[in-house]
Design a protein that fits this description.
Blueprint: H1 14-30, H2 34-40, E1 46-51, H3 58-61, E2 69-74, H4 84-96, E3 101-107, H5 111-116, H6 124-138, H7 140-144, H8 148-168, H9 171-178, E4 184-191, E5 196-199
Parallel strand pairs: 1-2, 1-3, 3-4
Antiparallel strand pairs: 4-5
Bound molecules: cobalt (II) ion.
């Protein structure tokens, strides 16, 4: 009702607040200056671009504490040249935080990758996932020889490799490399069934030929 004070709705987050208090206390016990140090500055060496999937928590699977990795996540870990959100994260990470390594991490069993191949529309998100479907069409020769599971796994990898190239081709990274800034890009794929990262061996750094568009081993 207009003019009424806001109602304090009950919610189901009590367990989360309890977890948070315990976590904060444990951190302080282990390192009394932990939060005051972080409050003064963040200086992460890594930018992580990963999937929003709840099974792929960036800090946790690479064993890094708050302050150690700058994170951008979206459905199916896409880096699109029209996505102001991702590009702004990338620019801030490279130009202000001066991260040394950019990690694009996909994962096997990615629901976004699977949905990109479905014939039925899922509404808005089908537009978001369209670049993966187009990638699958470009790679049809390679993918058609695989059984269903292997095809999905390979498409998860190919999607990461494509996004590594997309990161390299942004103005942010091209400009950084032109300045001689040492920033590298890596493509990883995470196994939700074993908790392990695979290096897809498509790393790029400023020694690659500048101004040529990068096609990170996709061909
Ligand atoms: Co996913």
């Amino acid at each position: 009702m207009p003019g009424s004070p806001p109602v304090n709705h009950p919610h189901n987050l009590a367990a989360l607040f309890a977890n948070n208090r315990d976590w904060s206390a444990a951190r302080r016990a282990a390192d009394p200056a932990f939060f005051s140090r972080l409050a003064a500055q963040q200086a992460p060496a890594y930018l992580w671009i990963g999937c929003s999937d709840s099974r792929v928590p960036a800090n946790e699977i690479i064993g890094l504490a708050p302050g150690e990795v700058f994170v951008h996540r979206n459905v199916a870990n896409l880096v699109l040249h029209s996505d102001m959100n991702c590009l702004s994260v990338l620019q801030y990470a490279v130009e202000v935080l001066k991260v040394r390594d950019i990690i694009v991490c996909g994962h096997y069993g990615c629901g976004g990758v699977a949905a990109s191949l479905e014939s039925v529309s899922r509404g808005l998100i089908s537009n978001w996932l369209r670049p993966i479907r187009e990638l699958a069409e470009q790679k049809a020769d390679e993918l058609s020889g695989l059984d269903n599971d292997a095809r999905m796994a390979r498409l998860c990898e190919l999607n990461v490799i494509k996004q590594v190239g997309n990161v390299a081709n942004t103005t942010v990274v091209q400009d950084a490399w032109q300045r001689g800034q040492e920033v590298s890009i890596h493509g990883l794929c995470y196994g939700v069934s074993d908790g392990l990262l695979r290096d897809l061996d498509v790393s790029l750094d400023y020694s690659v030929v500048l101004s040529d568009l990068v096609d990170a081993n996709v061909s």
